[in-house]
Amino acid sequence: MRISGSIVVVTGAAGGIGAALARRFAAEGARGLLLADLDAGKVEDLAQALDREGCHTVGVGSDVTRESDVRALVETAEKHLGPVDLFCSNAGIGSGAGIEAPDEVWQACWDVNVMAHVYAARAVLPGMLKRGRGYLLNTASAAGLLQMPGDAAYTATKHAAVAFAESLAVTYGDRGIKVSALCPQGVHTGLTADPGVRSVLSAFGEIITPEQVADAVVEGLADERFLILPHPEVAEHEQGRAADRDRWLSGVRRAVSHLDVKLSEQPLVQPLG
């Protein structure tokens, strides 16, 4: 997968990883970008900036938990830019809570972290299958392979997101459709500005920049790897988890037992960008 000459959709593009992906794709020579976010003002400002720099870019406000909005994204991209080569389903939220989170918070995490990927696939796959080619990049998290201690809804839905991406790869991989699951660990976004989240993530490794994530994405897409891991150590942790799950769980408990700030003290729903 080469970005140069491609038409790309990025959701959750107003900031954080999504905005970094948009800027990097423009620098890589994308033929057109459709950027979407709940924050219409910010995403339109970014789109206008990239358009002035020479990459044909459209920015739209969109709620990825509504299937009609996601279908409209694809229709807008095809109308103004052309057939979508790469759909980056990037929007995500964290709950900052354990099982005590209200049902509506659990539902919000499910809708954004899982169903948005489902809606993206439903919207873009028919055209890709007709052309015999296409790429889906689903932003999940290292929590989808491991854990995010203190955030039960985030952990559960990110595991589901990885499993759904695997299902897509199995079902459509022999029909010209490539799938990658982006699984970073700690990234400097709006979420990690929260001291509780930052404390937990720092216990497991370096917190990197969104631009470093974008670098890893471009490399991973070029290699057409299913798992794109901006933190390479996540692969080792996943192997350790599979080899001896009881030992791994004990190690995670030890790693977080000394933390002073607990995620349950933080606001309930936080965008990841």
Task: Describe this protein's structure.
The protein is an alpha/beta fold. The chain has one domain (7-242): 3-Layer(aba) Sandwich (Rossmann fold), CATH 3.40.50. It is 49% helix and 14% strand. It has helices at residues 16-27, 40-52, 67-80, 103-131, 152-172, 195-202, 210-223, 233-243, 245-257, and strands at residues 7-11, 32-37, 57-61, 86-89, 93-94, 134-139, 177-182, 227-228, 270-271. A 7-stranded parallel sheet has the order 3-2-1-4-6-7-8, with helices on both faces. The protein has a two-stranded antiparallel sheet with strand order 5-9. β2 (32-37), α2 and β3 form a beta-alpha-beta unit. α1 packs across α7 (210-223) and α4 (103-131) packs parallel to α5. The longest helix has 29 residues, at 103-131.
